[in-house]
Amino acid sequence: MNKPLKNPITYLTFIIPTFVLYAVFFVYPVIVSFYYGFFEWDGITEKVFVGFDNFTQLWKDEVFRKAIVNNFYFMAFSLIVNIPLVFLISIMISKIRRMRGFYKSAVFVPVVISTATVAILFGVLYNYDSGLINQFIRLVAPEEWAQEWLSNPKLALLSILVANAWQNIGFFIVLCLAAILNIPREIVEAAKIDGVNGWQETWTITLPLIRPVLFVMLLLSVSGTMKVLDIVQIMTNGGPFQSTEVMSTYMLKVGFRSMELGYGSAIGVAMFIIILVLTGILQRITKREEVQY
């Protein structure tokens, strides 16, 4: 038996602070949000119990429904575009023998940049008059092809999706690349002796062996896109005309700007339940399996 288990005091000394922090910063806020969701409250005056009215109002709220749809756009973009791109780039870097460390560092750089900086950077790139994107378009195409990227309701969400992907894709590349490089060389070499080409190696060896890591990436993508806040808040604040509104930004506006803390808490509870259900479904669909090399 491990020595810490022989001395419960030592064991509890390391475990209790973790449980306390988890309870204070996760369990307690969730419980309080559920509680406040049953009240009409502005944070100052006396709370008024309204039962399930806040929750039933959610499904009648057109802005909230639009926010949910936008969150699902974030999730779909991540699963359909980001994850395959991550896998492709990871495969390409894994085949490189020289300067592999440089490429790993290069793709990871956006991850360490603050979201506020990324949002401001892309806001400058998307600027209609002086933005680099429109300047390039004007060089190769007519002037009318230049776009109001963040002011056009049809383009604003896509513009944010690209910026969000650019910032976060590096983390998943490093995660996926680590799994690929962890595959024993003996397996790859044996496959090559059997006449397996590069395409067959990718689909019959690499992909099945990194399946648990891909599952983790899917799980992080789903939970992360359902909670996205800062980049939307800074770039468009949910506009124009709620075209980029997501659940987190709407919760912030309702709870802390309109001072409807009860209704804002109900939105937070809805977010929690949606994320819980989606991750539960994902776990059932992609049953986690341990890979044996």
UniProtKB/TrEMBL annotation:
Which InterPro entries does the UniProt entry name for this protein? ABC_transporter_permease, MetI-like, MetI-like_sf
Q: Which GO terms describe its biological process?
A: transmembrane transport
* Gene3D superfamilies to which the protein is assigned, alphabetical: MetI-like
Primary localization class, coarse: membrane
Where does the sequence pass through the membrane? Answer: 12-38, 72-93, 105-126, 155-181, 202-222, 261-282
| A Pfam family reported for this protein in Swiss-Prot or TrEMBL | BPD_transp_1
What is the top-level taxon of the source organism?
Bacteria
Membrane-topology descriptor: Multi-pass membrane protein
For the ABC transmembrane type-1 domain, which residue ranges apply?
68-282
The alphabetical list of record keywords is: Cell membrane, Membrane, Transmembrane, Transmembrane helix, Transport
Q: Name one GO cellular component term.
A: plasma membrane
PROSITE patterns (alphabetical): ABC_TM1 (PS50928)
State its location(s).
Answer: Cell membrane
The entry's family comment says: Belongs to the binding-protein-dependent transport system permease family.
Supply the name of the protein: Carbohydrate ABC transporter membrane protein 1 (CUT1 family)
Organism from which the protein derives: Paenibacillus prosopidis
